[in-house]
Amino acid sequence: MKVKKRISFYDNVVDLNKEIIRENARMTPEECWNAFIKLRRLYYGLTTPPEKLRKQITISKTAWT
Question: Which has more pLDDT, 38 or 63?
Fold first, then answer.
């Protein structure tokens, strides 16, 4: 179901934050995940995606032994 976007004007930031919290509470886990993926794609579209880091554990003797 498509929800029409609406424009709201707030007198202070507190009311805006309360509305954002209410909207997020109404979202299902699947909707939250989809919103996260959408924001991540948008962010990586504006910036460059991070390079894959090499994961390595190095074990060595301590200096005091």
Answer: 38
Please give the C-alpha separations between residue 37 and each of 10, 32, 40, 42, 56, in angstroms, as whole numbers. 28, 9, 5, 9, 28
Taking residues 29-41, report their average pLDDT.
93
Can you tell me the mean pLDDT for 36-54? 89
The 3-state secondary structure of the chain, one letter per residue: CCCCCCCCCCCCHHHHHHHHHHHHHHCCHHHHHHHHHHHHHHHHHHCCCCCCCCCCCCCCCCCCC
* Both tokens assigned to 7: 């424009």
